[in-house]
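Thread: Newbie trying to understand structure tokens

Hi all, I'm a second-year student working on a class project, and my supervisor (Dr. K.) asked me to get a predicted structure for one chain before our next meeting. I've only ever worked with sequences, so writing a 3D structure as a token string is new to me. If someone could post the tokens and maybe explain what I'm looking at, I'd be very grateful. Here's the chain:
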Amino acid sequence: MTRGMQKPTWSRQPWRPIQRFYQMTLLLSLLFPTTKPVPWFNDFSNSPGEDCPGFQMDICGVCAGDGSSCELFSGTLFLSVLSVGYHKILDIPIGAQRIKLQETQKTRNYLALRTATGKSVINGDWVIDRPGQVYSAGTEFTYKRPNEISSRTGESITAPGPTNQELHLFVLYQQPSPTVYYEYILPRDPTIIAHSDTYSDSSVFPHVESHGLFAGRDISNTKNSMGGLHPNHVPLDPMTSEPLPLYSWVAMTKTPCSVTCGTGIRQVLFSCIERATQTTVSGDLCSHTHHPGPQGEDCQSLPCPAFWDVGEWSECSKTCGPGFQYRQVICRQTRGHHVNSTITVATSLCDNTEMPETTTMCQLKICSEWQIRSEWTECSVPCGVGQRSREVVCMDNLGDVVTDEECNMALRPQDLQNCDKGVCASSWFFSLWSDRCSADCAEGSRSRSVVCMMSQNNSLPLDNCNDKEKPDELMPCDLGPCTDQLEWYTGPWGQCSSECGNGTQSRGVVCILQSNGQLEVNSDDTCSHLSRPANTQTCHLKSCGAQWYMTAWSSCSRSCEGGFRVREVRCLRDDQTISNDCDLAHEPARKEECNTHTCMPHIDESCKDMYYNCVVVVQARLCVYSYYRTTCCASCSRVIHRDTLSRIR
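---
Reply by user tm_fold:
Sure, no problem. This is what the structure looks like when written as tokens:
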């Protein structure tokens, strides 16, 4: 028994009935309390009111209570580096009231809440909800997200309770080292409070699972003073247990508000009082119970003045040359708890101070510009449509050639364009008639070659000449009747050399002397004066499908230091029509480099230095200007030639 707790007897202490009356009265008030609705977080109504005249509300909302009818659970969860995703950090039991879950600082992580059955309440299933109110588990949850510009506090989830389901708190992890503060209360069994001085918050309900994320109290095997019974178990005869303590801690005074404007916090200080007389006594008389310590509550002060909330400057709108930077300027006012929450208000409320600039000029560097270094080359084809090129470079303000990205690509001059040399005229070309007749006797023919070609110097045969105007390729001839006639005799054609497309096949050809109806084989030389029939010919069994066809290479676009030449490539079917069925992996090249050898510099006898200090002009890189290239011609020419050789290498 502690001091002031000696058990009196009826014979020696006549005030025992009075003590018994107060014990019964307090026990009934604990068993059937008449309280206000549960206040918000640490928001104790310690001032006398209609429901509690002359007394103060404790942390549990009990009039003139000592905070023992409920149990406060709170702590801070410090998480280390985790994998990206959901991680459970806290279990909130059924019946929890005045729930507060708060990130201690703003991060890119999100708080998520769901029931024990897996139903999402806030931010579940990879969906981030808007801030606002959500009704679930028998209470209304308020979800708040910090302001993106000025707020330094993190997300919060609050609810008055009580809950009718077990809840699980998760962190949707995306940024290292999140820290979460939690707080809620659970009501205690009043019969246990009336009969156990050693009753503690570690023995009310099963403790929440910590997952090794924070250091908690060891509450797995706690026993109370009732011989190991669970604290929620009601004794059979509560009136035969120890009497209620005569002294208890009661909230008495408050400290000044922590802020001069907006909503702040102040501390509620507890004093030891005698229950019978409600007078303050020495704290030693309450040593048998746990001192609740200072408790915080919200306090209202004058509204805070509005202020300009200035965001960060954006990047410059231009990478070179004059540009602009922008930032967001909002009129805000502190309205939240403890001066850590602000809201956007009308701009007129900030008229007492000048609005900061939202736009400013910026320039990262001077822009580079395009320079054309050569004239157009000759067209790559003698007729028809070809290509020509010229050299275009990007040069900075110091005269150095830089990458094309340093200049405005939208203003880049063309370095390659088509050129039209006019229509390629075509005509029928033919050779002279052969001198020999195709037969030594009787009727025969003389022949010549006919081909359609361009009028210019081009050896490629064409197919766009008018067939009706095609000259004859054969002309008849007659050398008289045949006697002892020599003739070429041919055998049947052999097998085609290709199973598809164009192939070749051959046959036997012999020289035969025909005399008086008799046939005699002679040497080929005997028939050499006669046109020998072909012993091979092309053959075509079936179509092979589309194939690549190409023209000859054009002339090189440059005579030295790397040019290019082009040719036309087409995919054609067997009937020479355009197709898209060719294998692109085997497409012949349409363009290739040529004449990559170094150009020999042209020696200009009139190119001389007109001043003795031309070496300074070269060192200052002034040769990019035409005036210095003329007055210091020899020195600048050597530098340009040297730079050209270094680029080629």
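A couple of things are worth pointing out once you decode it. The two ends are 101 Å apart (CA to CA). Confidence is low (pLDDT under 50) at residues 1-49, 191-242. Feel free to ask follow-ups in this thread.
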